[in-house]
Each structure stands twice: as structure tokens, then as C-alpha cells.
Amino acid sequence: MKFLLILTITLLLAQVTPAMKCWNKLGRCRETCEQNEVFYIMCKNEAMCCVSPKHLPAETESSNIAGRWRIFVV
User: What is the CA radius of gyration of the chain?
Assistant: First the structure.
């Protein structure tokens, strides 16, 4: 009986909805970005797409950088 309970709990925990992915599956939709991430675009659910800076396109001279809010010309 304990085995059945443990199995049920494990399966329920595995079904927890993972964070939505964005930016070609390199970012995650969150309300606030973690310290090692930057906001790049908005997600469909109006959350921020938080991406590691190493996955962002190169900045151009016309890029506008204001703190953690970055706008890139692609």
C-alpha cells in the first residue's frame, strides 16, 4: 500500500506544469528575471521572457540599453 501511495505522489509531482519556454526554447517566461538573466521580449501570457545573456543576439550601435531593459535591432 505504501508503494502505491509513493507512486501516486511521484506521478503527481511529475505532472507539475513546467515554466513556459520562449526565445526558441532558450528562455523562460517569468514574472521577474533571475539575477543571471535579462529580459528580452514579452511572452504570450504577458510575462517576461528571461534569457541568459549568452543566448542574446549581438548588440548593434543603435541598441538602446537602459539597465536590465534591453532593446535590440535584429
Answer: 18
